[in-house]
Design brief:
The chain is mostly helical. The chain has eleven helices and no strands. The radius of gyration is 37 Å and the shape is flat. It comes from Salvelinus namaycush (Lake trout). It holds the Pfam family DUF5601. GO terms for molecular function: guanyl-nucleotide exchange factor activity; small GTPase binding.
């Protein structure tokens, strides 16, 4: 790999996957079909290899992974208004145990970015998923189904907005031991995470049972959805109402700030273009009309003003003052 840094991400991935496959075949022959021992060795090989190669193959410059990271991060920020009711998530965060599992799930999916080995990243996803199942089971008081799990995972991803999400997914896909992705709970939970990200990227009003107009208003930040409230005293109702108004105001201010920042960025770009244009014009004028520098006059130049006059020798002698007697 040290001599193949000029290759693209897909070629590097193919190189690693070929090595995994060849080594796995040789290990199966050596251990005579002992899958557990083979998997144990392969896990350590992956850990050693990818720890050494991480800096060079994670989010390489030859890909658009970083661009996708920024796009999904911006998309999730724009969907901050999506409520748990809109996604039909069967989780009651008012229950302390459920709330605790939700927080742990968010922490796990964020922690994924800090790991270097693909298997460790998968472990974070698996832990996150198990906390989600615990939250659903506690809320429903019965076993959770796959139909309950995916909406809740989408909700967790929206709440967490994990850093470098697309880069981590691509890194796992390219360099993880394929036996883990194609079977077992790690592969199942990873597939669901990919589905959740794809859903978020294509999320529209119809997905949330909203009209196109409502969806656009929420996305633009002009209004915020009213969250359902339990029966409370008039004082609490007034406080909640004031809080919602404040949230709407903050959302509007955030949109205005984004517009101001966009205007500032455009102004900065215009100023840079103007400066470059002026420099180009000045350089063009200097090339067309170069400056001619003349040497400075010597200190004796004024006293020898007629030094080059060849007729000086033929001039009469200067007049001498004469005195006349009165």
């Amino acid at each position: 790999m040290a001599y193949k840094r000029d290759l693209g991400a897909d070629e590097l991935s193919e190189c690693v996957q070929d090595f995994y496959q060849n080594l796995s075949d040789r290990l199966h022959t050596h251990f005579k079909g002992s899958s557990e021992r083979v998997e144990s060795v392969m896990d350590e090989v992956e850990r050693y290899m990818m720890t050494r190669l991480y800096e060079e193959v994670f989010c390489p410059e030859t890909t658009d992974d970083e661009k996708k990271d920024l796009a999904i991060q911006k998309r999730i920020r724009a969907l901050h208004w999506v409520t748990i009711e809109m996604l039909c998530v069967p989780v009651d965060e008012e229950i302390p145990e459920v709330s605790d599992n939700v927080v742990k799930a968010i922490t796990d999916v964020i922690e994924m970015d800090s790991k270097r080995v693909p298997r460790d990243k998968l472990t974070c996803i698996t832990r996150c998923s198990k906390h989600i199942f615990n939250a659903i089971n506690t809320t429903k008081k019965e076993a959770a189904s796959a139909d309950d799990f995916l909406p809740t995972l989408i909700y967790i991803v929206l709440k967490a907005n994990p850093p470098r999400l697309q880069s981590n997914i691509q890194y796992i896909t390219r360099f993880c031991n394929p036996s883990r992705l194609m079977s077992g709970e790690d592969g199942y939970y990873f597939t669901n995470l990919c589905c959740a990200v794809a859903f978020i990227e294509k999320l529209d009003g119809q997905s949330l049972n909203l009209s196109v107009e409502e969806f656009e208003l929420y996305m633009s930040g002009q209004v915020s959805p009213q969250r359902p409230q339990a029966a409370t005293s008039p004082a609490c109702s007034a406080a909640f109402s004031q809080m919602n108004e404040s949230l709407d105001l903050l959302t509007g201010l955030g949109v205005r700030q984004e517009r101001v920042m966009e205007g500032a960025r455009r102004l900065e770009s215009d100023l840079i273009d103007w400066r470059d244009g002026v420099e180009h014009k000045v350089q063009d004028v200097l090339e067309r009309f170069p400056l001619e520098m003349h040497p400075a006059a010597s200190p004796t130049a004024s006293s020898a003003i007629d030094a080059d006059n060849v007729e000086n020798d033929h001039l009469p002698s200067p007049l001498q003052p004469q005195l006349f007697a009165g």
